[in-house]
Amino acid sequence: MEVKYSIEDSVLMLNLDKEYGMQIESVHFIPLGDSAYSYWVNCANGERYYLKLFDHQNDGQRRSIERLRFYLPLTWQMYHQGLFRNITYPIINRNGCFKTTFNNITVVLFNFIEGEILAEAYPFSKEILEDIAKSVAAIQLITPFIDKTTLLANTFDISFESDLEKCISMIECTLTFNNPIKQALRQVVLSKKEQIFDLLNLVRKLHGISIADTKEKVLCHGDIWGGNLIRHKNELYFVDWESAILAPPEFNFVNYIGEEFDVFFSAYEKNIGKSVTLSLDLLRFYSYRNHLRNLTNWLMNILHRNTEEVQNEKDLEKILYHCMNRWDSIEANVRAVDALLQKRK
């Protein structure tokens, strides 16, 4: 989120003191992320924490609150049982709970990880790609040891499709928005309308193929991009486990099927300890599905959720430069992956 939540810092600090038994010295808003408001929290004893704040009035953030019950126990177990420790995990409050609710918000406190967030480190170096792949393999290998009863299993969800269709219908029916960002959004979306529905139909077709796939499900982080990776003292840390899920391994590869695929996949196979067969249709499904789901979320933000123009500008920028501009490269990337895999046989 680009604009901080409308709560006084003093009120937030007072409630954190009460719920966590900490002497909070200051809180600082961090303008990043889509699913919650982010802060870092400084304590009088010098300790620092990362805070996620969820607004109960925002339907997208309410869905994020629902997912807390899956990934907070998971990351707590992963860290405290030593399964995988380079992660953010929740701090328990005075009541022994992972989350805290007050003033129509829910907050979660996490350990704070120092280091460089890799959101601006693209294109990744060979060393970084190999470190990411090594961690992906390590996370997959702990699958037998995690408590799967608290973890979401992949259903190849495309429930966003109804919201996407409604957003496009609203944009189409509104000839003129009394807002320059929304008017610019209208022009962009309508120019891509045919392609959007073609991709949506393709995702529906691939959805049926994916459901029929019998590949073993493994633990996946679910959103491995630079903004969820922190590098500190030659160690790589994975943060924001909101999308963690039991899914086919292909789910981990969707952000790495471009020029970096050979390096990434070679390091992954080396660390997983065996040859791996990938389904091209699963790669297609996850790639197109993720882009359309992101598009839907940003459309919903601009049309229904956002209250600040700066957030609208940021979400439109994401639609243009982190979504629509990447659609045409997906099929070419999948074909390149296929050619590389055939060559390796």
UniProtKB/TrEMBL annotation:
SUPFAM superfamilies in the record: Protein kinase-like (PK-like)
Residue ranges constituting the Aminoglycoside phosphotransferase domain according to the UniProt record: 29-255
Name of the protein: Thiamine kinase-like enzyme
Matches recorded under Pfam families: APH
